[in-house]
Design a protein that fits this description.
This protein is mostly helical and 265 residues long. The chain contains eight helices and seven strands.
Length: 265
């Protein structure tokens, strides 16, 4: 089969799964919840990226040397999730709100992969479009690729480049979602002990997507996300102490509200 056809089929498949997940799990009829079309442009020649332009997604065909086509299900979900964010929380694409905008796309893209392709899933991003590097972004340990996993900690970006680090500082929320899903324990960069009991992909995705759809607003910060995520848990999982404790503990792990926690002795 012609490679361009394969790329188009991949995008159609990923688009269908994105639509199905949003409808079945969150009751959304498309990204605008008004049954608007999910438009996609495929096979942009020698283009090593994918993007959302405000009306449609676009996917590069790679360069036949370093990059494969950018049409894997996690990439497709990532780009359509930018549209989802635009129609709901509309997180401004700069500073912390922009970082969370990017992170929400990573979260939805990787969740699609984990739900529909668990046999090949990993928490690495870039596994399917890079011929050389397999670790462009790691949600399980962002520090491995010189990215932050702790709020304003190691590798945090404060300069004006990249809209004040939207593609760098998103890793904090990425790691938050990984810990919420899988759990983990250790000592964070603030020298604070944490022990997160993972709650699984279904509940973690419920919290993250509902946070984006119904609670965050265009200028929300990481601290706003912390406070509002507790409201999400109260609304979705009332009286579920395990879920609430997990959410509080994983925010502690990534350095939010760190001053209220006792340091390790």
């Amino acid at each position: 089969m012609n490679l361009k056809v394969i790329n188009a089929v991949d995008v159609m498949y990923g688009t269908g799964k994105f639509y199905d997940l949003m409808l079945e799990k969150f009751g959304l009829k498309g990204i605008d919840n008004q049954s608007g079309p999910l438009n996609a442009g495929v096979n942009i020649a020698l283009f090593n990226n994918a993007y959302w332009d405000g009306e449609a997604t676009h996917f590069g065909s790679g360069d036949c040397y370093i990059f494969y086509p950018f049409t894997a299900i996690d990439v497709v979900g990532h780009e359509f999730a930018h549209g989802l964010t635009e129609f709901h929380s509309n997180l401004i694409y700069s500073h912390e709100s922009g970082a969370m905008n990017e992170a929400m796309s990573d979260i939805i893209g990787k969740s699609l992969e984990k739900i529909y392709h668990p046999e090949s899933f990993s928490w690495g991003i870039g596994v399917f479009f890079s011929k050389i590097r397999k670790d462009f972004r790691n949600m399980d340990d962002p520090n491995l690729t010189n990215n932050p996993k702790y709020y304003k900690g190691l590798y945090w970006w404060d300069d004006f480049w990249d809209n004040y680090g939207v593609h760098t500082n998103r890793r904090v929320l990425n790691h938050w979602f990984y810990l919420l899903t899988e759990g983990g324990s250790g000592v964070n960069e603030g020298d604070i002990l944490y022990n997160v009991q993972g709650i699984g992909i279904d509940k973690a995705l419920d919290i993250a997507v509902n946070l984006n759809l119904n609670y965050l607003s265009e200028n929300s910060t990481y601290f706003d996300a912390y406070k509002l995520s507790l409201e999400v848990v109260k609304d979705l999982f009332p009286n579920d102490v395990i879920v609430m404790d997990a959410v509080i503990e994983e925010w502690k792990a990534v350095g939010i509200r760190r001053k209220s926690f006792v340091r390790r002795k």
